[in-house]
């Protein structure tokens, strides 16, 4: 069924602990999400870039079969969002070197009329008031999930709490869950977040996997044990893309907010994210084949099989 | 089949982040290991305490059905090992308040003749030269696994490397694996450790689960997602106890060092450890029933089932 992602497209500069770096490569939450989701279901992008956005990057995005870029606005006279970061040795934390919001400070991109019937909506991280405005443009949605970040927890808490009354699910990082709730224990923090409205919360823990706190149960899944991590950028968005793409590909009779549906979808997100981190930018996803995804998913299944 | 654990029995004082503490309670690696293993297989203890060891503590240990305390030496004129610690808010790190080695600085306890035929041997953390001396007293062993800690990595590296040529498996914490190898990535660190000799390395990550790095494969398992952690003391030893107890309970025809055997055994260790942390000292294991263990294991299985 139809899946739309709203989020950022950016030009990233990334330094990794092993001394490598890449300057001005394709990034952004929407980009990683859509590329990852495309392995499971067609996906529509709502995002805006400036007229400095390299045509090559647009071609890279469009090369993912099933990614609909009709909602990718190129705004004249505006500049694309840019981000630079340096990962700490543990790869799970990073320092931001610079953030040039540019076009992200302007009006959000319009949602194409043809996207309004989307059944699955993922609101990647941005100001929660903007997320609410976008959400309202999907009246036929069946499952809406939002991501957020520490900045909005600190500066737009009221709007974030309002957003939580409107979505089915929330995806956020481990330290953000603690920051929002003041609770260090991930399960306890997730339960507290459920009190604000969503049916489920997915807490991402990077190399340590993810925890699902759902009204109907709790589950923890490990990350795929990667031996070599080149660049963790986009892992969380790829995870969300794989998760939502899998849910959108499920049969219409299945309830996409059900505990077991979300839990299984997280496993697919885990596997897709494990490829993203094997190279800079979208490089690994761009070369990834369906059979590679299937093979790694089978391996992940076997790794967790206890029967 | 017969399982022996060598390790410490101690008197602990523990402060937890939620303001609770317990003074002078039963602890020690051997204690937690044996109590946990006893849910799967009979277990023999080799340990030494001083004559200050409270008879009540000995009764607590003996109350675990299947724990053989014939190898628990009470040494006249000596004092029992004592440890005090305070957990940091993340519960995965702790500061040692004091360590009174006492009897641990004297000769190690003798291995009873009746234990020499043990097929499964777990060498809980102590000086690696002592671990080697103990190991030599089990000529009929089929599976030998050792634990270690940062102190020996820093101060007895040569002996530790020698130990690794003699055991089938090594169990250690995440930060210790990094300290030993200089490699931050857990899988890479595990592989490096395999170069020293063992068939497998189990890297414990506390609330984030454990990773198996085996000559025949890699596996990650999450911790059971606990909502309330009272006292993490003994979680790692309980994990090892459940793991080794399960392996010792397997059919004689199964190869206990096989990748899949160790992986499945780790799941049992995970489940047993999840009970240990629900209360101070051995309190939760002392009240634990087989049906509670089975119910939680079934839940853990379902949580990871992706078929």
Give structural attributes:
homodimer, 307 residues, alpha/beta, UDP-N-acetylmuramoyl-L-alanine:D-glutamate ligase, four-stranded mixed sheet, 11 helices
Helix content of chain A: 25-40%
Q: Which chains have the largest interface?
A: A-B, 37 and 37 residues
| Strand segment count of chain A | 14
Rg of chain A computed from alpha carbons, rounded to a whole number of angstroms = 18 Å
Order of helices and strands of chain A: EEEHEHEEEEEHEHHEHHEEEHHHH
Q: Strand share of the residues of chain A?
A: 15-25%
Assembly classification: homodimer
Spatial gap, N to C terminus of chain A = 33 Å
Domain module tally of chain A? 1
Instruction: Name the overall outline of chain A.
Output: globular
Name given to the CATH architecture of chain A? 3-Layer(aba) Sandwich
Write the layout of secondary structure elements.
The structure is a homodimer of 307-residue chains.
Chain A: E1 3-6, E2 10-15, E3 21-27, H1 29-37, E4 43-50, H2 55-62, E5 67-68, E6 72-75, E7 81-87, E8 94-100, E9 120-123, H3 128-135, E10 143-147, H4 150-155, H5 157-164, E11 169-173, H6 174-181, H7 186-194, E12 200-204, E13 210-214, E14 217-221, H8 235-248, H9 259-276, H10 283-287, H11 290-304
Parallel strand pairs in A: 1-4, 1-9, 2-7, 4-5, 4-6, 9-10, 10-11, 11-12
Antiparallel strand pairs in A: 2-3, 7-8, 12-13, 13-14
Helix pairs in contact in A: 1-8, 3-5, 6-7, 8-9, 9-11
Quick recap:
The structure is a homodimer of 307-residue chains. Chain A is an alpha/beta fold and 307 residues long. Chain A contains eleven helices and 14 strands.
């Amino acid at each position: 069924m139809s899946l739309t992602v709203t989020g950022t497209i950016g030009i990233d500069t990334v330094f990794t602990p092993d001394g490598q770096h890449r300057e001005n490569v394709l990034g952004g939450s929407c980009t990683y999400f859509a590329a990852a989701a495309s392995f499971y279901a067609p996906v529509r992008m709502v995002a805006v870039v400036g007229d400095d956005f390299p045509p090559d990057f647009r071609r890279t995005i469009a090369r993912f079969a099933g990614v609909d870029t009709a909602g990718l606005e190129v705004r004249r006279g505006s500049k694309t969002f840019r981000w630079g970061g340096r990962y700490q040795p543990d790869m799970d934390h990073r320092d931001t070197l610079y953030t040039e919001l540019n076009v992200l400070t302007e009006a959000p991109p319009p949602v194409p009329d043809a996207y309004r019937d989307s059944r699955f909506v993922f609101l990647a991280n941005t100001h929660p008031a903007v997320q609410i405005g976008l959400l309202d443009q999907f009246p036929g949605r069946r499952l809406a999930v939002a991501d957020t970040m520490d900045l909005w927890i600190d500066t737009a808490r009221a709007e974030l709490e309002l957003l939580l009354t409107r979505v089915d699910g929330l995806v956020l990082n481990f330290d953000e869950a603690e920051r929002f709730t003041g609770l260090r224990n991930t399960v306890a923090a997730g339960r507290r977040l459920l009190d604000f409205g969503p049916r489920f919360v997915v807490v991402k823990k990077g190399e340590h996997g993810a925890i699902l706190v759902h009204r109907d149960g709790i589950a923890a899944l490990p990350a795929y044990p990667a031996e070599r991590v080149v660049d963790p950028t986009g892992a969380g968005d790829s995870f969300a893309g794989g998760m939502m793409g899998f849910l959108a590909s499920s049969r219409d009779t299945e309830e996409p907010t059900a505990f077991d549906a979300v839990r299984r979808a997280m496993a697919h997100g885990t596997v897709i994210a494990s490829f993203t981190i094997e190279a800079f930018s979208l490089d690994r996803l761009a070369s990834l084949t369906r059979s590679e995804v299937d093979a790694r998913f089978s391996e992940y299944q076997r790794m967790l099989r206890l029967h």
